[in-house]
Amino acid sequence: EPEVTQTPSHQVTQMGQEVILRCVPISNHLYFYWYRQILGQKVEFLVSFYNNEISEKSEIFDDQFSVERPDGSNFTLKIRSTKLEDSAMYFCASNPRAVLGEAFFGQGTRLTVV
Amino acid sequence: KQEVTQIPAALSVPEGENLVLNCSFTDSAIYNLQWFRQDPGKGLTSLLLIQSSQREQTSGRLNASLDKSSGRSTLYIAASQPGDSATYLCAVSPNMLTFGGGTRLMVKP
To answer: Is the pLDDT of residue A99 over 80?
Structure first.
């Protein structure tokens, strides 16, 4: 069964460093998303991406964050200068049809900023 | 701004019981409601998707209903098993998903 794949599963980084989280969405899906879940809190929307551009972003998704689809398969989230409060589980999701479609999530990348 | 609430926050039941998890949302202008399962430290597994024009969806022992006008959904789990122990999340869209806080379910053998 097709699935969303995320790498790495766990990343530890020092405060101020740049990190890139990687995702391979399901191959025939057109809409891509990043969400995060701080420990003990709700899953929060960060950004949605369609047709090689950001379609929506939340207040959390500030200038420190960027997304890219560098080739036909990968979808990345970059955090330029990590802060302690960026520590969270980051989930990538993809959806074949946006508003009416079913979202499929990856297993997540646990980011720990020390 | 859409707010999604799930009650109860935690639930512990003996194996074999039928149970109901509740989800409520404040803005009825949704396209979909999706139920997920999350195991500790793991990703989100989609269980059921209900589109706004639908009233319910069934998958195996799971049945989800949607009452859009009242802003409510329920997830019914029949004949619960220890393997059902997990956190259950509901989320509503258009486009991006707004999540509830989840119900942490423990099914005891």
So the answer is: no
Put simply, whether A60 touches B (Cβ < 8 Å) is no
Residue closest to A28 by CA, chosen among A83, A99, A97, A100? A97
Chain B residues whose beta carbon lies within 8 Å of the beta carbon of residue A31: 95
The owner of tokens 């029949």 is: B78
Residues 6+ apart with CB under 8 A from B51: A100, B31, B32
Chain A residues whose beta carbon lies within 8 Å of the beta carbon of residue B43? 6, 91, 105-108
Distance between CA atoms of residues A21 and A72, nearest Å: 16
Express each pLDDT in A44-80 by its tens digit: 999 999 988 999 999 999 999 999 998 878 999 999 9
Out of B32, B95, B99, whose CB is closest to A42? B99
SS3 of residue B53 by DSSP = coil
Cβ atoms of B26 and B37 within 8 Å: the answer is no
pLDDT digits (tens, 9 = 90+) for B55-74: 999 999 999 999 999 999 99
Characterize the bridge pairing of strands B103-108 and B10-14.
Answer: parallel
